[in-house]
Amino acid sequence: MPNALLIALSHNRRLRAFAERSPLGRRMARRFVAGESLADALAAVEASRGAGVTATLDHLGENVTTPAAAEQAAASAVESLEALHAGGFEANVSVKLTQFGLDLNAALVQRLLRSVAERAAALGGFVRVDMEGSAYTDRTLELVLATHAAGLPVGTVLQSALRRTAGDAERLIAAGIRIRLVKGAYREPVSLAFATKAEVDGSYRWLTERLLAAGNYPAIATHDPNIIAATLGAARQQGLPPERFEFQMLYGIRRDLQASLRRQGWRVRVYVPYGAEWYPYFMRRLAERPANLLFLLRNLLR
Ligand SMILES: Cc1cc2nc3c(=O)[nH]c(=O)nc-3n(C[C@H](O)[C@H](O)[C@H](O)COP(=O)(O)OP(=O)(O)OC[C@H]3O[C@@H](n4cnc5c(N)ncnc54)[C@H](O)[C@@H]3O)c2cc1C
Question: What domains can be seen in the chain, in order of their start residue?
């Protein structure tokens, strides 16, 4: 379960401004972020390709406060798609709808998501809409459903931590929308989310079985070795070949596990974040595993 203090600090503007500008902060961020430029991100994608792992690019940013910033975020997603395609990679990006103005104007978000998805379609690519905090779940699902209904290559993410997810999964399965299943990186009230790790993991396992049986090319996005083993067991039991689903992991986390799955012939995609606005993403990674904080501090003191 995400650590509450670190999640609270992930929203702190002063700490963010300080961290994103400080050379030390930028150095620490490299643990989970491929770099600040698109070129840095493409180098990480190239390195993954060498290991047989595909990628999705995320130009970091969220909760923009002006329409101009939303337009800029969409332009940068298109730039990523084009650069991936030009480099001979699959044109696959992950975006956040608060980056396209979800706090500002629904019509703007719809237009921007559609324009990015149209460019992805032209390049034979795909747009994954990340799932943010529960205040955005309904609107995110509606926008993805509408964009998919227009025949565009979009999918989204469901969080096993939320009590509502089994219902959402059925809705997306019925529409044929590709789902990435995650545990959930945001702190949620117990009225909406399971309170214990055992419940979140139990929900994840149940949803995985459902997606393997009925989903459209689901992405099992976790670093949890027990869940990965259970997924492989379920896939073998259902006689599913590797082409029917993929594992996904975050840049910088459990490369050993990625390599071991590839050696066994399973598909693996890595989520490659890049850009100057790395602070909230970085803090969520620390919150998932506070031991990371100790590890970073120990390295700094050396
Ligand atoms: C490809 C991908 C996309 C994602 N997209 C979203 C999204 O759109 N919305 C959302 O809410 N969440 C997203 N997440 C984050 C997710 O919700 C979890 O917070 C995160 O994956 C940690 O959970 P876990 O499944 O790895 O299991 P956990 O039980 O948290 O961890 C299992 C094991 O994985 C390793 N591990 C996990 N996290 C870390 C870390 N930060 N540093 C080092 N080791 C770690 C540790 O060995 C740990 O014991 C995404 C995750 C992935 C992999």
Answer: 33-277 (3.20.20.220)
